[in-house]
Amino acid sequence: MYRIADAHSDFLAFSTLGELGGRLYNHADIERMEAGGVVLQNLAVWGPAGHEVPEAAGMTQIRYLHALASQNSSVRICTRPEHLTLNQGIWAFLSIESGESIGCRISNIQKVYDLGARMLSLTWNDENAFASGCMAIGGLKPDGIKAVDELNRLNMALDVSHINEQGFWEAVERYQHIPCASHSCVYDLCAVPRNLKRDQIDYIISRGGFIGINFYTEFLRGQRTAYINDILDHIEYVLERGGEDAVGFGSDFCGIEYTPEGLNSAAYFQRLPEAMERRGYPNSLIKKICYGNFARYVLEFLH
Ligand SMILES: [Zn+2]
Hints:
Distance between the termini: 29 Å
Bound molecules: zinc ion
Oligomer: single chain
């Protein structure tokens, strides 16, 4: 079984908010992650903008993870480099998805850092007090600039999935560490606003960053039906741009309405390396895509 690292899941949001009127889905739990071979799981905290108090929803998710880690011996919160050398259970890498999840308050970045968070994205798809997502216009706002400065100070990962192009370029220019797109696909293969343009992919690779390919069928093929081979096509595009050390998985499980055929939960992760073997990928490359590249990226933010 290949070790799997997944750079984005909405498991915490689903576990605490339920289906949220059809916006969250039951794709993953600890048992299914273990069955799929997941050993490193980025767990996103997402306070939906339409939610009554997104900041409270965010804190509830962080508390849920801490409770889970104290009750379930197979889940631990990953904050130190030596954690990744311990080959046991699932290491949870805690991230904050969108400024709303912390009330767009700069002081809350230190607060969530102290609770284990090591990654933050400024926006979801719409506009907030930090910046604008891919469905809105405008670049970084004064508080968005302060937020990037705070990530610089704390050495937290900047996640550029969801932000629009103007915000992307303004944020990565100001950001001093290595950026990532935790759950984004390739625009050239599927022209939707959430996907990364070629120059964005080239830039992330040039900075030594990470790109987690999203499993959402609408981002893979622009329709409800997609296949594991579509995920491999998006991976191969990044590989052809020189991304052998940059590309991996950002499943977006629990946050996507439609999943590829044969991959409707975290339990089926091993079908990806199996498909890579069928395409003749060398074993060393499969290990990088499945685990090594995201683990290498995460290590930049563990001290
Ligand atoms: Zn997302």
